[in-house]
């Protein structure tokens, strides 16, 4: 039985077109700026985002760190959400390597930070205070169930940043999912941002890599920071070739909308299964979160282990809150939804789901 992997959209394998492009990619030494495939990817990515320049980096984590270190000096502060990837899941790299202090705010269920809370978090002029240098937002916001942030909201945050001589960074690991969900072109979502990152290796299915974009002057600085972080690669056009296919063929709204529609259908099915608690109004893109009710006969760890035996992979998200996460992606197809629902039903209740089509 083929394994259905819903742990994340990072599990996506490269497409056949990507493998072919990788095999045939013209390459050169990128540290000398001589890899034509990387140069092409950077130009096309910058053009799509409406930015002057872009930089290919090894991962989303390296991209975010490169941006934070390019914006902030040691002892300066960045404002971001407690639930943000940069704060929660990047090994405190901004603090460890850049001496940058995070000033964290709560997220609201829609994935936004309250604008007045942001204003309040910005330091005034006082000998005791660090300099507030950067605001980071995440789009889609993984900590808020993959909520997409609108261009209006982002522009409001940018205006606050720029009014205070600060910069705005967008961690757009799943930026194209936000664009598809909102039907807003990506360049509109990042127009006011001073730097942006997005992942080629998540829903866009490339095997490796992320993009950093911004002004020419910013990318020149970021280029040096990337080198210092060990991100100066050589004939990495092999990887960029897959990234180009990801950009050209995997970013269409219709393509990503399939993943969002599958997430919704899966969530609606899960809502019918005993002991599952799921808020369907929070399903906005390709991520779903659900909880096992307090009286459920099993724990989320047992559910995850039981699903694995049924060839379905999904990770617990919070043991304390009995939450599970599932993420849809290119390699998860509509006709696999029933199989996942049957598996969940069987593991939770010990009996197979009655099939309404019989
Ligand atoms: C995955 C992710 C990253 C980091 O990407 P890696 O390539 O795994 O380092 C950063 N931000 C968000 C919101 C992500 O989901």
Structural description of this entry:
- This protein starts with a strand and ends in a 9-residue tail after the last helix.
- Helix content is 41%, strand content 16%.
- By secondary structure, the protein is an alpha/beta fold.
- The protein is built from 14 helices and 13 strands.
- It has helices spanning 16-24, 36-49, 60-71, 85-88, 93-98, 115-121, 151-163, 175-182, 186-190, 216-228, 237-249, 253-271, 300-309, 337-349, and strands spanning 4-5, 53-57, 77-81, 101-105, 132-138, 167-171, 195-199, 210-214, 276-277, 287-292, 312-313, 315-318, 323-327.
- α12 (253-271) runs parallel beside α14 (337-349).
- Bound molecules: pyridoxal-5'-phosphate.
- The site of pyridoxal-5'-phosphate has 12 residues, from α3.
- Pyridoxal-5'-phosphate binds at residues 59-61, 64, 85, 138, 142, 171, 173, 199, 201, 210.
In a few lines, what is going on in this structure?
The chain is α/β, with parallel strands linked by helices. Helices cover 41% and strands 16% of the residues.
How would the blueprint of this fold be written?
Elements: E1 4-5, H1 16-24, H2 36-49, E2 53-57, H3 60-71, E3 77-81, H4 85-88, H5 93-98, E4 101-105, H6 115-121, E5 132-138, H7 151-163, E6 167-171, H8 175-182, H9 186-190, E7 195-199, E8 210-214, H10 216-228, H11 237-249, H12 253-271, E9 276-277, E10 287-292, H13 300-309, E11 312-313, E12 315-318, E13 323-327, H14 337-349
Parallel strand pairs: 1-11, 3-4, 3-5, 5-6, 6-7
Antiparallel strand pairs: 2-8, 7-8, 9-10, 10-13, 12-13
Helix pairs in contact: 1-11, 2-11, 3-10, 8-12, 12-14, 13-14
The structure holds pyridoxal-5'-phosphate (PLP).
């Amino acid at each position: 039985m083929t394994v259905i992997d819903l742990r994340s959209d990072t599990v996506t394998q490269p497409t056949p077109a990507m493998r072919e492009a990788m095999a045939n990619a013209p390459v050169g030494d990128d540290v000398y700026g001589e890899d034509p495939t990387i140069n092409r990817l950077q130009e096309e990515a910058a053009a799509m985002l409406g930015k002057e320049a872009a930089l290919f980096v090894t991962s989303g984590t390296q991209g975010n760190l490169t941006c934070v270190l390019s914006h902030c000096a040691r002892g300066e502060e960045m404002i971001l959400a407690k639930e943000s990837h940069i704060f929660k899941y990047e090994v405190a790299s901004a603090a460890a390597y850049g001496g940058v202090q995070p000033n964290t705010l709560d997220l609201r269920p829609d994935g936004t930070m309250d604008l007045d809370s942001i204003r309040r978090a910005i330091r005034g002029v006082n000998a005791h205070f660090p300099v507030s240098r950067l605001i980071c937002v995440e789009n889609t916001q993984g900590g808020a169930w993959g909520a997409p942030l609108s261009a209006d909201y982002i522009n409001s945050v940018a205006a606050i940043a720029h009014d205070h001589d600060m910069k705005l960074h967008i961690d757009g690991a799943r930026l194209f999912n936000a664009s598809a969900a909102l039907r807003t072109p990506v360049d509109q979502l990042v127009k006011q941002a001073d730097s942006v990152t997005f992942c080629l290796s998540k829903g866009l299915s490339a095997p490796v890599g992320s993009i950093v974009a911004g002004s020419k002057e910013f990318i020149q600085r970021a280029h040096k920071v990337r080198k210092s972080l060990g991100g100066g690669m050589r004939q990495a056009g092999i990887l960029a070739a897959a990234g180009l296919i990801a950009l050209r063929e995997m970013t269409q709204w219709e393509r990503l909308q399939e993943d969002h529609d599958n997430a919704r259908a899966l969530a609606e099915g899960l809502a019918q299964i005993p002991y599952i608690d799921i808020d369907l109004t929070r399903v906005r893109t390709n991520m779903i979160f659900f909880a096992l009710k307090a009286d459920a006969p099993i724990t989320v760890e047992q559910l995850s282990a039981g699903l694995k035996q049924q060839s379905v992979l999904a990770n617990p998200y919070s043991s304390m809150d009995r939450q599970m996460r599932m993420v849809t992606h290119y390699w998860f197809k509509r006709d696999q939804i029933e199989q996942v629902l049957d598996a969940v039903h069987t593991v939770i209740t010990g009996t197979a789901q009655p099939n309404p089509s019989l």
